[in-house]
Each structure stands twice: as structure tokens, then as C-alpha cells.
Amino acid sequence: MKQFAGKGMGDRMRMAQQLQNSGMLDPGARMAKTKQGTGKRLSAKDRAKAKKQREREMRRKKREQRGGGEVRAKGP
Q1: Distance between CA atoms of 59 and 10, rounded to whole angstroms?
Q2: What is the per-residue pLDDT across 31-64, written as a single tens digit (0 to 9) for each?
Q3: What is the pTM of this model?
Q4: What is the Cα–Cα distance from 76 to 61, expressed in whole angstroms?
Q5: In sequence order, which ranges of the chain are alpha helices (DSSP H)?
Q6: Least packed by Cβ within 10 Å: which of 20, 22, 33, 58?
Q7: Spatial distance between the Cα atoms of 38 and 46, rounded to a whole number of angstroms
Q8: Closest CA to 1 of 19, 26, 27
Q9: Cα–Cα distance, 31 to 33 (Å, whole number)
């Protein structure tokens, strides 16, 4: 509405008409949603692999937050 200040009557009418056309003046109006794709469905094997990877990441982040994140060497 601040945009209306300092405008002539013709400009105000034009702006009001643009707002009506864009749906801004009707608060009950719902905007059209864009459709989303479903994406790729993962096999059970792929889901398990992704879950394992997420769990590894969570453990790694917890370790870093908890105590510096030093990496232990495997082996003797």
C-alpha cells in the first residue's frame, strides 16, 4: 500500500487492477501449486545402504561435537 503514495489517480487505479489480477487482494485465494515428481523409488538394498550411511554420518557428527573428533587407527 505504500506504493500507492505519491501516485496520481490513474496510476493508483492501474496498480489496484494489477493487484487484483495477481490475486494479492483476495486473502482467501489459494495459489496454484506446482506439481512435484515422486522421485526414484529405492530398492530395499539401496534403502538399507542409505540408512547405514546416514547412521555413520550421525555417529561421526556426534563424535566431533563430543570430543574433538580424533580418528582412531584400525589395526595393531
Answers
A1: 64
A2: 677 878 778 888 999 999 999 999 999 999 999 9
A3: 0.38
A4: 26
A5: 9-22, 44-67
A6: 33
A7: 17
A8: 19
A9: 6
